[in-house]
Design goal:
Elements (H helix, E strand, L loop, with lengths): L8 E3 L4 H10 L4 E4 L5 H6 L7 E4 L9 E3 L3 E5 L4 H6 L1 H6 L1 H9 L3 H6 L2 H7 L7 H7 L2 E6 L2 E6 L4 E3 L2 E2 L6 E8 L6 E7 L10 E10 L6 E10 L6 E2 L1 H7 L6 H14 L10 H18 L3
Parallel strand pairs: 1-3, 2-3
Antiparallel strand pairs: 4-5, 5-10, 6-7, 6-10, 8-9, 11-12, 12-13, 13-14
Length: 291
């Protein structure tokens, strides 16, 4: 059933400080609204529980891309179009640039924000696998101060995050300096565009040694739709780190990924399909390392 919009308040404080003051004074009352691409779906289907929308879209304090020597800092209000158009992100963080191009239509990318994508906390979201592989951190703000945590600790379960009722996601900081890594990202969906992923995988690896004895010196794997939240595949990483790139390593990676993956059956796919395809994607990446 569609929600009655007449029952909703729309509050638009003039500054970030005013937003944080409102959240502190009335924790749990307001739903922050950035691009609104997800919230409008919930509104149209009658699933939006909180009836006060707190507008963030006009806040320049949350919309920025700041390039520094060792990281690129992205404001939570930065749109996917902003990310796609950033030359620095395309060069230094190509997995994130690619993921941004997958996020809905061009209209969605013009409105949808990186912070909204993360706070919506869908296990199938497009941007998390890349951010997990890159080892991003997130900075959360409230009227009481700021705190920073690894992005891998941000998602606590299905649609649950580490955000407190009086906090906002302010900055996503992504380390750079991956020129020595082979990078890979794949999304499998019903269509090539405008489809929620059945499974997605982002992976990076540094290969040491010569062509006859290539060893995986480091590897990082992030995945979507393999659990109740976006996940870093630590067991699969550990199974191949420091190992030769060969058939034994490929089998070990598939086995480890199968052990840690906990996908579900839903309207888009089955758990069996998701687990098998994710293992195929990981194998595809590992085999590319010897090319």
């Amino acid at each position: 059933m569609r929600s009655d919009v007449g029952q909703f308040d729309f509050v638009s404080p003039a500054s970030l400080d005013a937003v944080l003051e409102r959240l502190a004074a009335e924790p749990g009352v307001h739903t922050p609204l950035a691009g609104g691409t997800e919230l409008m779906v919930a509104l149209n289907t009658g699933r939006l529980q909180q009836h006060s929308l707190l507008n963030l879209q006009h806040l320049s304090e949350l919309r920025f891309i700041r390039v520094e020597a060792e990281a690129i800092h992205i404001g939570s209000g930065t749109t996917f179009t902003d990310i796609r158009r950033s030359e620095a992100i395309a060069i230094d963080l190509p997995l994130l640039s690619q993921a941004a191009s997958w996020t809905g239509s061009v209209a969605n990318q013009n409105r949808g924000t990186l912070g909204g994508n993360l706070c919506n906390a869908s296990p199938a979201a497009d941007s998390p696998p890349a951010l997990l592989a890159y080892g991003a951190t997130v900075t959360l703000v409230s009227s009481h101060g700021t705190r920073t945590l690894p992005y891998s600790d941000f998602h606590l379960g299905y649609k649950r995050t580490a955000l407190r009722p009086d906090e906002l996601l302010h900055t996503i900081s992504v380390p750079t300096g991956w020129s020595g890594y082979r990078q890979y990202i794949r999304k499998v969906g019903t269509r090539n565009a405008q489809a929620i992923s059945k499974v997605a995988l982002a992976a990076m690896a540094r290969v040491d040694g010569d062509r006859t004895s290539r060893v995986i010196g480091d590897i990082r794997i992030g995945a979507a739709s393999l659990a109740d939240r976006p996940v870093r595949c630590a067991a699969a990483e550990a199974a191949v780190r420091g190992k030769l790139v060969n058939e034994t390593t490929v089998r070990a990676a598939r086995t480890a990924l199968a052990g840690e993956a906990k996908p579900i059956d839903d309207i888009r796919s089955t758990a069996t399909y998701r687990a098998h395809v994710a293992a195929n994607l990981l194998e595809e990446f590992l085999r590319s390392l010897v090319g």
